[in-house]
């Protein structure tokens, strides 16, 4: 029989020899999930013994983490904004920086009349579902080029009881022609192809390439989103984009070419310019 203390010790040791940057915390999170307890509880209950089935599950989680699999994929869940989302390796794991996109978008959406919002490249659905949870007048549309991602987004919409307010389409943005929107939001893939190989192993080894790769200069999908938004937005409608830390000027120029008025550029927690808001004129 093994207790929490000895399992955490072993798990920490294995992960410390792997590439994990936070081996102790990783082991604690994995064990707390196996036991369905919060982190504080497992630290207080260190002498508590585990049954064999929980021991086996924990060991398997540690083995997967050792080979770089992100905790969110192992546990099949990720917190984003104020909510829990189901995730698997068909979708990008929602990032804290993307919460800035939600925060800025909410400032543009008051709760008076119906607002039609399109999320391009919805992935797990984390953006549109968070927005719809906060604004009961929001009617959402979410598209993704990946069928498998869309399946995950629908699981999340069902979990949040939003299937009646969000429509999902499997489509590339350039082939999407449905509707006119008050606001379009997008966190498209924006990493330059040449930079993909410098990403952490946890990312490039596990997250879907289609959610990361932005083509040669990183703006391949961004460009499509901007072009398409200029016809899908109502006049005065807003476009909220997540961009790479060094893409501000490139994206500003693409927006100006399509006659968008640039309202605001917002920095992320690391002080990088991460979100750009523009209006269709
Ligand atoms: C960076 S991920 C963002 C996922 C999610 N919105 C989020 O913020 O966590 C980009 C998403 O765009 C999708 N995508 C890539 N190219 C696309 C295209 N041409 N049209 C529509 N979606 C696309 C990918 O499948 C992926 O789900």
Which labels suit this protein?
281 residues, alpha/beta, Rossmann fold, 9 strands, binds S-adenosylmethionine
**Bound heterogens, unique:** S-adenosylmethionine
Could you name the CATH class of the largest domain? Answer: Alpha Beta
Q: What is the N-to-C order of secondary-structure elements (H for helix, E for strand)?
A: HHHHHEEHEHEHEEHHEHEE
* Poorly predicted tracts of residues: none
Strand content: 15-25%
* Gap from first CA to last CA: 68 Å
- State the total count of DSSP E strands: 9
- Shape designation: elongated
- At CATH level 2, the architecture of the largest domain is 3-Layer(aba) Sandwich
Number of domains: 2
Query: Taking strands numbered 1, 2, ... along the chain, how are they ordered across the largest sheet?
Result: 5-4-3-6-7-9-8
Relative helix content: 25-40%
CATH superfamily of the largest domain: Vaccinia Virus protein VP39
Can I get a quick summary?
The chain is α/β, with parallel strands linked by helices.
Task: Tell me what you see in this structure.
It is a single chain. By secondary structure, this protein is an alpha/beta fold. The protein folds into two domains: 4-68, Helicase, Ruva Protein, domain 3 (Orthogonal Bundle); 79-280, Vaccinia Virus protein VP39 (Rossmann fold), CATH 3.40.50. The protein is built from eleven helices and nine strands. It has helices at 4-16, 23-35, 39-44, 52-66, 71-75, 98-108, 126-134, 147-159, 201-204, 220-232, 248-257, and strands spanning 78-80, 83-85, 115-120, 138-144, 166-170, 181-186, 233-242, 260-267, 273-280. The protein has a seven-stranded mixed β-sheet with strand order 5-4-3-6-7-9-8, sandwiched between helices. Strands 1-2 form a two-stranded antiparallel ribbon. α1 (4-16) runs parallel beside α4 (52-66) and α6 (98-108) runs parallel beside α7 (126-134). The longest helix is centred in the N-terminal third of the chain and has 15 residues, at 52-66. The radius of gyration is 21 Å and the shape is elongated. The structure holds S-adenosylmethionine (SAM). S-adenosylmethionine binds at residues 91-92, 94, 98, 120-124, 126-127, 143-146, 149, 172-173, 187-189, 210-211, 221, 224.
